[in-house]
Amino acid sequence: MIQEHSQRITRNTLILYFRMIFTMLVSLYTSRVVLNTLGVEDFGIYNVVGGVVAMLSFINGSLSAASSRYITYELAIGTPESLRKTFSCVMTIHIFIALLIAILGETVGSWFLLHELKIPENRLNSAIWVFQCSILSTMLSIISVPYNATIIAHEKMNVYAYISIMDVMLKLGIVYLLVILPFDKLKIYALLILAIQIFDVFVYRWYTSTRFKACKFKFTWDQSLFKDIFIFVGWTINGNLAVIGYTQGLNILLNLFFGPAINAARGIAVQVQTVIQNFCNNFQVALNPQLTKSYAQSDFEYMHKLLIISSKFSFLLLLLLSMPIIFEAQTILKLWLNIVPEYTVIFLRLILCSSMLTALANPLIISVHATGKLKTFQLVEGSMLLTIVPISYLLLKFCNVPPEAVFIVHIGIEICTQFARMKIVLPMINMKIHDYIKNVLFPITKVLILSPIIPFIIYICMPNNWYSFIMVCFTSAFSVLIVTYYIGCQKHERIFIKQKIYTIIMKLKLKK
């Protein structure tokens, strides 16, 4: 059984990586064209206006976690009838929340856009267009969550990959239309993105309703199940409000203190971060259903193994990808973009550092969601992360700090929060904190300290040219791989890697 699960995880991970590599290449190209076509100011406006709507929909993160947890749990131990009821209840809640977001957006959101954000007067009309399209896109995104959660719970990652590839191909088409259409570029971009969101929802709904007979929506009111889901959502709201705070909240703070150009710098940094994080997310998405199912079936030994693998190798994978970019951010951004907004380089470096901490946190978060015991975890984690925005505001308001200070605050608090997560979650799943420190924290700390030494020496000693750029990127990746293999991996992990490499070599020889 364990071997079957491992093979499924491996297959799903490979499918997701194929999807990710394709979407990454297209996204990098489209981001460049969109920035150059819209310009720094309009690109910043699009990012910050969309961020206002995202802040209003902070509950969606909690609903997404609840959808994934309850649908996956019922799939593992429930019946087709109980799965059908759970899916319909979850969908009913999402429809209700989508309508609530629309009301909040047209009242509180509109007031904030018109009276608080720093939007140039001549671009206010376009910003309102973006805002209205963002509200509709967010509503559709909320409604599509149960469909998405169902596909992932059934571990149909190939379908998830195909839909994502269709999505990115449509966005490639948007770039062409954006360049040739003779209208306001910001308005047309917002409308085209909305059209793609409509298409995505239709495809997710069509596939789920035809492929999974137990997941056809029928308006359902089950008071007991609704109560359980809302209790789950209630305890996760605190944490998801914190996530919205240190993403869109910081984005809005930067706008209030520095204007839309600084939002463009953050937007570019976040796009690179998203591409890099997808490498890690694909790995974790393939593991997450098994984490939940192993807890539901009380297979704690297998759950602990998955938690260690997901935590350690997610962090090391992000380190492998991030280190060359952190060293050579200036050169990479210049090659990628014709326009590099001020502060983009320092923002990118800091955001990549925070991404590695997020990769370490996610497996613990999925584990506590599997238990359903969220009260203490959410109160502690959410309360700690919620301090990021007020501390950043006070520093910007009274200490005259540069804009990158908000990301430094985020990193510092995230480190403290990770230790709190360990203390709370590990006892819930019958795992010793000592085992987590020994198998996860010690290995990644050693790799994190040792692997940058040689690339850093090359970076500071060699002149800034193409040769040094190639050397720094190569030695960064090579150092992480070598140090991970000999110091970050345990003996059985090295044996497994050797066997996989040997198998691949033999297959290549047989093909010849």
UniProtKB/TrEMBL annotation:
TM helices/strands, residue ranges: 12-31, 43-66, 87-114, 126-147, 159-182, 188-207, 346-365, 377-395, 440-460, 466-488
Keyword annotations of the record: Cell membrane, Membrane, Transmembrane, Transmembrane helix
Topological relation to the membrane, as annotated: Multi-pass membrane protein
Subcellular localization, as worded in the UniProt entry: Cell membrane
Domain of life: Bacteria
Keyword Transferase in annotation: no
PANTHER family with a match to the protein in the record: PSMA PROTEIN (PTHR30250:SF26), PST FAMILY PREDICTED COLANIC ACID TRANSPORTER (PTHR30250)
The name this protein goes by in its record: Lipopolysaccharide biosynthesis protein
Species, as recorded: Butyricimonas paravirosa
Origin organism lineage: Bacteria, Pseudomonadati, Bacteroidota, Bacteroidia, Bacteroidales
